[in-house]
Structures are given as structure tokens and as C-alpha cells.
Design a protein that fits this description.
Number of domains: 2
Distance between the termini: 35 Å
Structural class: mainly alpha
Shape: globular
Strand content: 5-15%
Helix content: 40-55%
Order of helices and strands: HHHEEEHEHEEEHHHHHHHHHH
Largest sheet: 3 strands, antiparallel
Low-confidence stretches: none
Radius of gyration: 21 Å
Number of helices: 15
């Protein structure tokens, strides 16, 4: 998909990674059925209302609004003359980063439980938007993924699925972990194109492989990171995974030699090359402007959207 734009299919890329981690046991029939149901619900929402929006891209904006409604709002649904309430997706505060089980980050888990996180929620939004025939751009922040759109009336705006609002960029900068260089270089806050979005799934694949085979030699993971970096040169997570993989390869050499003497190990050409490469990679990550947000601060930052909604919400989008 990265090498041939005509082969692009974000949904297929996402579920291919999940199916690989689940040893081919992902119920793809059920997953696709759920996607189809949600897509049809989006179309029903579009048919049942008119947006207060007069620009020429109204149809596109209506599709964005429908996906947002299906994902974040209660919807009355009539089935055989009986009224039901469709319940939206909500944030799952358990295992937010997938440390206990990486499948907690999966879209398939989100579809099954209607609870997800900043990985699965924007992934599903993008999938549904593309099922409706419109583009949805993923964008990155520290430990976080969200959606960016560009429309006639306001230009670029942000969609945040974890809290269900449209925050302006000031909220992102308020984290304190977005360096200006990171914005300039496209590490954070960049509207990713299709190729760059596929790069995200390649790193997902590498991380899932590491989880499944912790004693691997690193070669497969490096193939994933190198291809991802080719597509998205400033993809910090790809650089980090690549540097960490080189670090593990270096540590294996130390274990093989049964020593903790770094100087002795560095006498080996392959060890010195790994050390030099690793140092270059960590230096490059820092120069890109990437800064790590402590995990214990992430949820506080995320919840600040709810606590300070009036301060950070884009009222122009809210009023459509």
C-alpha cells in the first residue's frame, strides 16, 4: 500500500495487523459486518437531518458530522415500531497504553466492547469516513492520535474522539510537551496523508510482533520501521522503535559475551556499529523536537478537555 497508492486501504491495513497478532483468528466477517452497520447508521443520520452549513462542501461536512455523531452521541433508533437508544463509543480507562494486552488498542476490541482509546477511536473514525467516500486525516500528539479536517468555512479543525469535542490547537500546545521543532518538522499536529497513515500501522505491526516474539532477532521489526520511515521521515515512534530494537541487538551481544564491560564489547565491529547507530538515532529523535510525555500526566492532559471545555472548544464547529 505504501508503494502503490492504488492499493491503499486503511481498513485492510488495520485489520491485517490485528489478525496477525491474533494468529489469524480475527473474526473478519463479524468485524466487517459491524463496520457496515455503522456505515449504514451514518447514512441514516445524514438523511434524517440538515446541517446549518451553506458552503459548497456541505456533503463532505455532513459525512464528517454523521461519523462524529455515531461515534460520540446517543442516537434514537426505531426497529419494528420500537424505540431504542444507540449507545456511542466511550473511553476505556483500563490499560490505556496496551501494556497488559496490546489488543486493548485494537479497533476489533472497540467494535466488540464499544470502549476504546486514542488509538482505536481515531482509527475507526478514519475507517468509517473512508467507507463513506471522504478523507479523514490522522494527526499525532504526545502519546495520542486525533483527527484533522479541512473544510471551506473554517479551514483546518481538530476532532477529538476520546472526549467528543472539537478542540483548537491551543489545547495541544497546553500539554507542554509539543516543541516548536516538532510542529515544524511534522512530528506532531500534522495532517497525515494516506501513505503516512499506513506507516502508523507498520509500526503497530512491529510492536505487535515484539509482543508475540520477545526473543526475536530484530530483523523483522527493523523492516517495519525502515519502511515506515521511508513513508513518513519524521515519524517519531518509528525512530524510537528502531533505536530500541538496535539497543536490544546490542544487549544480546553483551549477553553472548557474558560481560557487562561496555568497552570490551565495543571492540567488536558489529557492536560498535550498533552503538553508533543507536546514538545517531536517539540524537535525531531529539533534534526532530520529540519530547516524551510521562504516562501518568497523559490522562490529566486528556481530561483537561472536559474540565476546561469552554476554554479549548472550537465554537465555530460546534454551531453547525
Amino acid at each position: 500500500m505504501i508503494e502503490d497508492e492504488n492499493q491503499y486501504n486503511f481498513k485492510e491495513a488495520v485489520f491485517s495487523v490485528e489478525n496477525a497478532y491474533l494468529n489469524g483468528e480475527l473474526d473478519t466477517v463479524s468485524v466487517n459486518r459491524e463496520i457496515n452497520i455503522l456505515t449504514q447508521l451514518c447514512k441514516t443520520v445524514m438523511q434524517s437531518r440538515q446541517l446549518d452549513y451553506g458552503e459548497k462542501d456541505k456533503e463532505k461536512v455532513s459525512k464528517y458530522a454523521a461519523v462524529f455523531t455515531v461515534m460520540s452521541q446517543v442516537i434514537p433508533v426505531v426497529v419494528n415500531d420500537t424505540l431504542f437508544s444507540y449507545k456511542p463509543f466511550r473511553y476505556d480507562f483500563e490499560d490505556v497504553f496496551g501494556h497488559e494486552d496490546i489488543s486493548n488498542l485494537f479497533v476489533s476490541k472497540l467494535l466488540k466492547t464499544h470502549t476504546g482509546n486514542c488509538n482505536s477511536l481515531p482509527y475507526l473514525y478514519k475507517i468509517l469516513a473512508e467507507e463513506l467516500g471522504v478523507t479523514a486525516h490522522l494527526a499525532l500528539a504526545p502519546n495520542h492520535i486525533y483527527i484533522k479536517h479541512n473544510i471551506e468555512s473554517v479551514g483546518w479543525y481538530n476532532t477529538e474522539l476520546t472526549t467528543g469535542i472539537f478542540p483548537h490547537d491551543g489545547w495541544l500546545m497546553a500539554s507542554g510537551y509539543i516543541h516548536l521543532d516538532a510542529v515544524t518538522n511534522g512530528v506532531f499536529m500534522k495532517a497525515l496523508n494516506n501513505k503516512e497513515s499506513i506507516a502508523l500501522t507498520l509500526v503497530d505491526l512491529g510492536q505487535a510482533y515484539q509482543r508475540s516474539f520477545p526473543d526475536n532477532d530484530g530483523s523483522f521489526i527493523l523492516k517495519c520501521t525502515q519502511k515506515a520511515i521511508e513513508a513518513y521521515p519524521y515519524f517519531a515512534n518509528a525512530w524510537i522503535l528502531q533505536a530500541e530494537t538496535h539497543k536490544k541487538q546490542y544487549e544480546k551481544i553483551m549477553m553472548t559475551k557474558l560481560t557487562i564491560d561496555i568497552n570490551a564489547v565495543l571492540e567488536l565491529p558489529e557492536a560498535k556499529e550498533l552503538m553508533d547507530t543507536m546514538n545517531e538515532e536517539y540524537t535525531h529523535i531529539h533534534k526532530m523536537g520529540y519530547r516524551t510525555m510521562p504516562e501518568n500526566m497523559y490522562l490529566d492532559w486528556l481530561m483537561s478537555l472536559t474540565d476546561e471545555r469552554d476554554k479549548y472548544e472550537n465554537k465555530m464547529i460546534q454551531n453547525f
